[in-house]
Amino acid sequence: MKLAENKFALALGVLATLLVLVVPQFLKNYGIYLLTYWLVFIIATMGLNLTVGYAGQKSLGHAAFFGIGAYTVAILMKAGVSFWLGLPAAALICFAVGLVLGFPALRVQAIYLAFATLGFNTAVWLVMRNEEWLTGGTFGINNIARPSLFGYSLEGNLAYYYFVLAVTVLMASLLWGLLRSPWGKAFTALRDNPIRAESLGINIRNYTLLSFAIGAAYAGIAGALFASLVQFIEPGPFAVAASIMLYLMVVVGGAGYFLGPVVGAAVGVVLPEWLRDVPLVSNWYLPMFGAAVVLLMVWLPDGLLSIPDRIRSKRAAREASQARAAAAGRIGAAS
Amino acid sequence: MTDFLQLFFSGLATGSIYALAALGFTLLWQASGTINFAQGEFVMLPAFMMLAFISLGAPMLVSFVMATLLAVLLLGWVFKRGVVDPLFKYGMMPIVVATIGLSIALRNGVRAGYSAEAHPFPSLFADKLFNIAGVTITLQDVGTFALAMIIVLATQAFLAKTVTGRAMQAVAQNTESASVLGINVPRMIFYTFAINAVLAVAAAMLVTPTYLAKFDMGEGLGTKAFFAAIIGGFNNSRGALLGGLIVGVCENLASAYISPAYKDAVALVIFMVVILFKPQGLLGKKEERKV
């Protein structure tokens, strides 16, 4: 059974690889744009999944980092700096700000932290909206160029898609490696029982700060790619509502599941964007989504990706009870 | 100086509305460990209910009573049975996520199903100005403040003086001992949800004439109510009142003397200072970390 499952996973992986590599060739511009949009949000949600799902820090300010990344690239490129310097700068600045935001997390936990990060998001959003000299205020920054790589222009949607895909795969591999390393174990220990983790010699302070900083750096990179994808940014997509949406995306996909962000980003941003022009659906998408989140919490609090686990544990329980019944039958027959 | 006083008094009026919402927040937290992210929407929905009753021709008072009954049913009973009870055993975060989902559903449901526009809402108070020693105060502000204070103080008197109120406090402090003493715990928790709903309707009646009835009017209100509750002290219901007034007044002063563009950051700054130096809030008691 284990082998069959592995084979199934392998087949699914091959199929997915083929899909992301080949299908865009046959899509129109809008389809490619949507796929790229999805990938950008997968990167952002991966970072939040590390902070929330693996390290257990309730952060409701992730869109602020996404925005800081986007504005960093946009402002630097307007000043004539290359995208290839802007991208690492976005990641570094977000890493540093994430480290600073981690400090309240050392004092307060759970819901207090959620509101502290939410407040941080409001503050960042206010700066984006009010400091016109820097961010263009509500008018935003437009005509953000797409970069070119080794003389090969990424201007076209398809080229940019493959570039973002490469970055996504790279970031996912890095996260995968991180989670398999002792660091990853320390993060989950921090989530599951901080006091026990501390008594086992894990430096809670450093790991809390790091979980924020690494998550923020992911959002920064996603934001940089986002700015170059949509080519026009304004404060709207980085408001508190966006942070809440990112959080819900992690939870809906399955917090602490590696592929959770793929599912979460599809449900959270790609579907509503895709259905935007369907009149009745586009109005009712968000109400339905909100209601679905409530139902999901009541029936499946670990997210959509916990369904296979749940089926597996049900099956195991059934097999165990059958085995017990058989054993009881044997004992009954022997006596 | 007169400017300052004027700003101070109108800040008190806004602050007393924050206090109403914050008080509901604290009561729910104390009685059932529920953090209600949809608190702002719990104010928005009754505003639209009252508008609906008014447009059917009901007078203000009747529509207030009808909206209160409806809110106790929907935002009290249905909310408790449908969302909080099934999630209670999983701890705090699933309830938080569910109420976030609820707030999105309610906000956008009203937008899609009713209207995305802002609707005017009749005020309880006549358009009148008072002039006391050069300070101009509107009747609206005085009335809002007075009514909100009466409601907050009445709620506190109910909790402190009546048998039911004391039973509710007992449940909040120690559910097991309360149940051993023969208190009907589920019923007391339901009363808390009902009181929260009534406070929300009262807040809606007072705030909507100035804020207008709009699907997203609860967005800022809910967050500020939470900040106010934390600033005052989450495990103390007097804290909600103090926190609400502090936030309301400081916001008003800051928008006049510092920058109106950063008005919404005021509650946040006070909140940050309070949780960094006194995490239990100004009036709260310290709780030890449990292993």
Key terms for this structure?
heterodimer; A: 335 residues; mainly alpha; ABC transporter involved in vitamin B12 uptake, BtuC; 2 domains; 2 strands; B: 291 residues; globular
Descriptive report:
The complex is a heterodimer of chains A (335) and B (291). Chain A has 335 residues and is mainly α. Chain A has helices at 2-22, 29-54, 62-78, 83-107, 110-130, 132-135, 157-180, 182-192, 194-199, 204-230, 240-253, 260-274, 279-299, 306-334; strands at 148-149, 152-153. Chain A starts with a helix and ends with a helix. Chain B has helices at 2-32, 39-55, 60-87, 92-113, 139-161, 163-173, 175-180, 185-211, 218-232, 237-257, 266-277; strands at 129-132, 135-138. A two-stranded antiparallel ribbon of chain B has the order 1-2. In chain B, strand 1 and strand 2 (135-138) form a beta hairpin. Chain B starts with a helix and ends in a 14-residue tail after the last helix. In chain B, 52% of the residues are buried. The A-B interface holds A 58, 104, 107-108, 110-112, 114-116, 118-120, 122-123, 126, 129-130, 195, 240-241, 244, 247-248, 251, 283-284, 286-294, 296-298, 301 and B 35, 82-83, 86-87, 90, 92-98, 100-109, 111-113, 219, 223, 226-227, 230, 259, 261-262, 264-265, 267-268, 271-272, 275-276, 279, 289, 291.
How would the blueprint of this fold be written?
The complex is a heterodimer of chains A (335) and B (291).
Chain A lengths: L1 H21 L6 H26 L7 H17 L4 H25 L2 H21 L1 H4 L12 E2 L2 E2 L3 H24 L1 H11 L1 H6 L4 H27 L9 H14 L6 H15 L4 H21 L6 H29 L1
Chain B lengths: L1 H31 L6 H17 L4 H28 L4 H22 L15 E4 L2 E4 H23 L1 H11 L1 H6 L4 H27 L6 H15 L4 H21 L8 H12 L14
Antiparallel strand pairs in B: 1-2
Helix pairs in contact in B: 1-5, 1-6, 1-8, 1-9, 1-10, 2-3, 2-4, 2-8, 2-9, 3-8, 5-6, 5-8, 6-8, 9-10, 9-11
